[in-house]
Design a protein that fits this description.
There is one protein chain. By secondary structure, this protein is mostly beta strands. The protein has one domain: OB fold (Dihydrolipoamide Acetyltransferase, E2P), CATH 2.40.50.180. The protein is built from three helices and eleven strands, in the order E-E-E-E-E-H-E-E-E-E-H-E-E-H. Strand 1 and strand 2 form a beta hairpin. The protein is globular and about 45 Å long. The model has no long low-confidence stretch (mean pLDDT 86).
């Protein structure tokens, strides 16, 4: 059994492995970083740690929109750093059988940020690959921007 955390952007559902999720919090003011890549919305302070906020709407070519009080931040750990994903809503923990997950490469080789697609009773959900959410150049630029902040 695979445990995922479901999240929503507009009417689309995505997921992350539960093991990568540190916490979920209500949206707070995001401080923009002038030299950060477009994928980085800015930074937030999480209990004394400065954490980059990733604009996954930008990554998935969804229309930009202003922050809403109902938005949430999903704090997750990548192999290289802690990041915050700005999402419309967190849907909760989803249990999914391994047999119900299809590797993204089996459907569309070369997908960069999606590692799998889970078949659920109420539809499908795309599973993020946090390792590839930001390119090496974007990670470096975000770290440089945060250091200069």
């Amino acid at each position: 059994m695979t445990l995922l955390v479901g999240l929503q952007l507009d009417d689309r559902r995505y997921a992350l492995p539960l093991s990568a999720v540190e916490r979920i919090t209500r949206v707070v003011e995001v401080m923009p970083l002038p030299d950060a890549p477009r994928a980085i919305a800015g930074v937030i302070n999480v209990h004394g740690r400065i954490v980059a906020v990733v604009n996954i709407r930008e990554r998935f070519a969804l229309p930009a929109r202003a922050l809403r009080l109902t938005d949430q931040l999903l704090i997750a750990q990548t192999p290289k750093q802690t990041i915050a994903l700005l999402v419309d809503a967190v849907l909760g923990v989803i249990e999914c059988a391994e047999a119900d997950i299809v590797a993204a490469s089996a459907i569309a080789p070369g997908m960069q940020t999606i590692c799998g697609i889970a078949k659920l009773a109420d539809g499908m959900i795309l599973i993020h690959d946090l390792d590839r959410l930001l390119s090496t150049d974007e990670q470096r630029a975000a770290n440089d921007a945060m250091t200069g902040a």
